[in-house]
Specification:
Layout: H1 9-17, E1 21-27, H2 33-39, E2 43-50, H3 53-61, E3 69-71, E4 84-90, H4 98-111, E5 112-123, E6 131-133, E7 137-139, H5 143-150, E8 156-165, E9 169-177
Parallel strand pairs: 1-2, 1-4, 2-3, 4-5
Antiparallel strand pairs: 5-9, 6-7, 8-9
């Protein structure tokens, strides 16, 4: 959990958010490692939430202020409408149920004013392989499958390749805009 995105997804996130300002929400922030990395390259006030109180505890131990962290269900975010300029998720939503993915995207669209960025693994085959049970269970589906779940919530979506990859998936960024 503490190193899988080094040299790829985490560096790409720094590039996407570098020089940005405003407020951002890291959904399913885990130990807060990406929050820490983005704080170093942006002017963002970054908040994070995760369903795991254990992982939020690790984020606090990392030095992230407790008032910027919440234990909550990402399908029912405890934030006001358009409270954040940006939101993001990195390597986490693919582990949600299909219903949970839709609810989470709806919530992220609700709490976000400008844009929401999501890093997901997509199937190397280009097919919707569905729920995979490997070391961790996750949805390994096509770019089109992910776009279909994002489209009801974001009017403009740009998808970009990532350097991240494994034997069955390739990393993909989905940049979702509210305009």
């Amino acid at each position: 959990m503490e190193s899988w995105g080094e040299g790829n997804a985490w560096h790409e996130a720094q590039f996407l958010f570098g020089g940005r300002s405003g407020r951002a929400l890291d959904v399913a922030c885990g130990t807060g490692i990406v929050m820490e990395k983005l704080a170093a390259v942006s002017g963002l006030e970054i908040h994070g939430c995760d369903i795991s109180d254990f992982l939020i505890g690790k984020a606090r131990q990392r030095g992230i202020a407790a008032d910027r962290l919440k234990v909550c269900d990402a399908t029912r975010l405890p934030y006001s409408t358009e409270e954040f300029d940006f939101s993001y998720s990195i390597g986490s939503l693919e582990h949600f149920t299909e219903e949970g993915i839709g609810k989470c995207f709806a919530e992220m669209a609700r709490v976000t004013r400008q844009a929401s960025y999501h890093f997901m693994p997509v199937s190397r085959s280009g097919r919707d392989e569905g729920w995979m049970k490997t070391l961790q269970s996750f949805h390994n589906c096509s770019v089109a499958w992910w776009r279909q779940r994002l489209a009801p919530h974001f009017p403009r979506i740009v998808d970009l390749p990532s350097l991240w990859k494994d034997d069955i998936s390739l990393g993909r960024w989905f940049l979702c805009f509210k305009d």
